[in-house]
Amino acid sequence: MTRNVLGYDSRSADKFVVRMPEGMREKVDEAAAEQFFSMNTFIIQAIAEKLDRDNRAQRLIDALVESTKRSAAA
User: Fold this and answer.
1) Is the pLDDT of residue 73 over 90?
2) Number of domains in the chain
3) For residues 10 and 63, which has the higher predicted lDDT (pLDDT)?
4) What is the pLDDT of residues 12-36, one digit of tens each?
5) Is residue 42 part of a domain?
6) What positions belong to coiled-coil segments (predicted)?
7) Count of beta carbons in the 10 Å neighbourhood of residue 13
8) Nearest 5 degrees, angle CA 64-CA 46-CA 62?
9) SS3 of 9, please?
10) Which are the contacts of 45, defined by CB distance < 8 A and separation ≥ 6?
């Protein structure tokens, strides 16, 4: 079984074709190379970070809404 640095078996992983705007592939390739990552690893990490930011932002919004409700009820 082939495991990559993200801990999954790349041979059995889901595959998805990504269409990038002109010039983006080169930018991703350069950024990945600067960090000694493959383009795939770089893209997967970028997606994971985006999902995590969105999740944290939603939790913050939920906490603010709840705090506002509690303040209004007091």
Assistant:
1) no
2) 1
3) 63
4) 888 889 999 999 999 999 999 999 9
5) yes
6) none
7) 13
8) 10
9) strand
10) 6, 37
